[in-house]
Design goal:
The chain is an alpha+beta fold and 115 residues long. Helix content is 31%, strand content 42%. The two termini are 35 Å apart.
């Protein structure tokens, strides 16, 4: 009976860690969506939001590309973090690097997602 109790406690802790990680991942992805929403209209965005599930923070910065043939084009970096308030808390970071064309087409060149 004691072995079964120990095993169920371990399974519960694993489930709590998994849930916290999923919530943190969702928060980070939602923060990236909020930053990307302003990608074609602005050059900077700050994301700072909290609710009962956790917090999402981050930035979006867009800079014009210089040089011949690059008129109207720009590069961007979206760097966001999601932190769940679960037991135990989890943190996920997401970074996107890319370019926006003159016709507002978005190209992602590099994506980093922590685990």
């Amino acid at each position: 009976m004691e072995l079964m109790l120990i095993e169920s406690q371990r399974a519960l802790r694993e489930a709590q860690r998994f849930r916290s990680k999923i919530i943190a991942t969702t928060l980070a992805e939602n923060a990236a969506d909020l930053a990307a929403e302003q990608l074609c209209t602005g050059f900077k965005a700050t994301i700072d939001y909290a609710n009962s599930d956790g917090t999402m923070t981050g930035t979006m910065e867009r800079t014009p590309l210089g040089g011949p043939g690059k008129e109207g084009q720009s590069s961007f970096v979206i760097d966001v973090t999601g932190v769940s308030t679960g037991v135990p808390p989890a943190t996920v970071k997401l970074k996107l690097d890319g370019e926006v064309s003159a016709s507002n087409q978005v190209f992602i060149k590099y994506a980093y997602h922590s685990q």
